[in-house]
């Protein structure tokens, strides 16, 4: 039984004027932002339960593009409704069954093909938040085309020892006060990765931070959280820059 999975109140978000544009990639809509100069490096951003049009996630796409990456956030829900602030938490388990973060392989392949063939991308990384963090963990076990991954507060699923055999460097970011992920789970993840993982990985827990902390826009941050949010984002970008 899960507690209310997301403490942060999405109803109090400011709007956001995006820098990128929307494209259709085969059966998927996607939001793309490119840097002002040519690059052959790209990053896929996997949205959280609030979907690919949510202002916070578009802000993150633009932020990563500003560091010199073709950045794309596809609609991994394929047109199905994202979670809405008016939805009831007791329906969340059913909603999750219809929005499985382990069933993203086909969409990831479509987007990888688009980045390589239409955007001339040679190296591609992936970053995901919450629901998207779970998807990133899954894809970093399955898809060797992804050169590096960052999973931000994705709930940790322990279905087998194969879950720790990452194909490429992966960074796991957590908030200390995230009530969906216990500290014990994070410690166990670390122990298991030490045993099974053959590529570089990193786990970092940010003091005092709740679920969803790293994707807030500047005007939505509380001053006490701002240094940790900025640090998490810098760490995320640095990880991508190290490997892509």
UniProtKB/TrEMBL annotation:
Signal peptide: none annotated. GO terms for molecular function: hydrolase activity. Residues 28-243 form the Dienelactone hydrolase domain. It is found in: Cytoplasm, Cytosol. Its main location: cytoplasm. GO terms for cellular component: cytosol. InterPro entries: AB_hydrolase_fold, CMBL, Dienelactn_hydro. It comes from the Eukaryota. Pfam families: DLH. Belongs to the dienelactone hydrolase family. This is Carboxymethylenebutenolidase homolog. It comes from Odontophorus gujanensis (marbled wood quail).
């Amino acid at each position: 039984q899960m507690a209310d999975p997301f403490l942060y109140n999405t109803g109090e978000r400011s709007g956001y004027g995006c820098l990128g544009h929307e494209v259709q990639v085969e059966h998927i809509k996607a939001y793309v932002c490119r840097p002002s100069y040519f690059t052959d490096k790209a990053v896929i951003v996997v949205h959280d339960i609030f979907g690919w049009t949510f202002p916070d996630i578009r802000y993150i796409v633009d932020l990563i593009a500003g560091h010199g990456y073709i950045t794309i956030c596809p609609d991994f829900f394929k047109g199905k409704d994202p979670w809405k602030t008016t939805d009831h938490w007791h329906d969340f388990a059913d909603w999750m069954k219809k929005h499985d973060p382990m069933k993203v392989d086909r969409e990831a392949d479509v987007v990888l093909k688009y980045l390589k063939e239409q955007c001339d991308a040679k190296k591609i990384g992936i970053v995901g938040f919450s629901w998207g963090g779970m998807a990133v963990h899954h894809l970093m076990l399955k898809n060797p085309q992804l050169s590096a991954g960052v999973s931000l507060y994705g709930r940790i699923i322990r279905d087998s020892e194969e879950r720790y055999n990452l194909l490429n460097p992966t960074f796991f970011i957590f908030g200390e006060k995230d009530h969906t992920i216990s500290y014990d789970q994070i410690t166990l993840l670390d122990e298991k990765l030490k045993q099974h993982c053959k590529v570089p990985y990193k786990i970092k827990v940010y003091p005092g931070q709740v679920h969803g902390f790293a994707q807030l826009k500047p005007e939505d941050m509380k001053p006490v959280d701002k240094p940790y949010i900025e640090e998490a984002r810098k760490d995320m970008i640095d990880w991508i820059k190290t490997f892509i």
